[in-house]
Amino acid sequence: MTSIYKSPLGLSVEKYDWDKNFTITGNAKREMTVKEFDSAYDFEEFIQAKINCKGIDFDSEYCQFFAYAKTKNRALEFVKEIEDYFTKVKEMLTAK
Questions:
Q1: Which of 7, 6, 4 is closest to 21 using CA atoms?
Q2: How far apart are CA 80 and CA 21, in angstroms?
Q3: CA-CA distance, 6 to 50, in Å (whole number)?
Q4: What is the per-residue pLDDT across 53-70, written as a single tens digit (0 to 9) for each?
Q5: CA-CA distance, 48 to 39, in Å (whole number)?
Q6: Would you state the pLDDT for residue 95?
Q7: Would you tell me how many other CB atoms lie within 10 Å of the CB of residue 80?
Q8: pLDDT at 92
Q9: Three-state SS letters, the chain
Q10: 5-55 pLDDT, tens per residue?
Q11: Rounded to 5°, angle at Cα 2 from 28 and 50
């Protein structure tokens, strides 16, 4: 396994030798998302509603988020989009 990126949000991008895809996995930290998710399924559904998921396949388990991208670039772009979304939400909440 090669660790490619660790997000402050609690997600990481990994590349496993046996897998042609890039794996996005982890658990979002509440202090970064400003929302408590009951499960990885809830986080996945939320992401699917808010983020561009083109080229991303999901296979979360109850306790851990899993998504897959065919390219390293798309995996990193996807995680950055999630980070940017939650950064904007936090900024809006603290601006009030």
A1: 4
A2: 18
A3: 21
A4: 999 999 999 999 999 999
A5: 14
A6: 79
A7: 12
A8: 87
A9: CEEEEECCCCEEEEECCCCCCEEEEECCCHHHHCCCCCCHHHHHHHHHHHCCCCCEEECCECCEEEEEECCHHHHHHHHHHHHHHHHHHHHHHHHC
A10: 999 999 999 999 999 999 999 999 988 888 889 999 999 999 999 999 999
A11: 30
pLDDT value of residue 96: 61
Q: At residue 6, what is the residue type? A: K
Residue 62: closest CA among 37, 30, 92: 37
How sure is the predictor about 94, in pLDDT bands with cuts at 50, 70 and 90?
Answer: confident
- Per the CB < 8 A criterion, the answer to whether 13 and 68 are in contact is no
Structure-block tokens of residue 25: 């996995």
- Residue pair 13/5 in contact (Cβ under 8 Å)? The answer is yes
- Residue whose entry in the numeric block shows the structure tokens 């899993």: 66
pLDDT of 77: 98
